[in-house]
Design goal:
The protein has about 110 residues and is mainly alpha-helical. Helices cover about 50% and strands about 0% of the residues. The protein is flat and about 55 Å long.
């Protein structure tokens, strides 16, 4: 996804552009597009996924869902791509490690 965004959306991006900045731009763009889509919607609800076990039942009731609520809640316990899961507490360390591995852009000499 990031390669497509970098090469297909962020046209004329310098080759030495910070990859993390491209990722942050992607996140900002996606969030902005979602907010724009939802801005005039009257039937919407914001749910914090970190609190899904307590936030989902009111959503279930609000939308008039039928079925097995406990089974639905159980679906949130399934870890997808678990082999690639990185605990939130490790993100800062991961970013530092990645930055050390990335080639550094050349220093631009601005003096003439």
């Amino acid at each position: 996804m990031m390669k497509a965004y970098r090469e297909g959306i962020l046209l004329n991006l310098p080759a030495n552009a910070d990859p993390l900045e491209g990722c942050l731009d992607y996140c900002h763009t996606v969030n902005s597009n979602i907010e724009l889509f939802l801005r005039d919607k009257t039937h919407k609800m914001t749910i914090d996924l970190a609190e899904i076990q307590t936030a989902f039942p009111p959503f279930w009731e609000w939308m008039g869902a039928e079925g097995n609520l406990e089974a639905a809640l159980g679906c949130f316990q399934t870890k997808h791509n678990a082999a690639h899961f990185i605990p939130a507490t490790a993100i800062d360390n991961l970013l530092r490690s990645v930055r050390r591995l990335l080639p550094q852009p050349p220093i631009q000499n601005t003096s003439k």
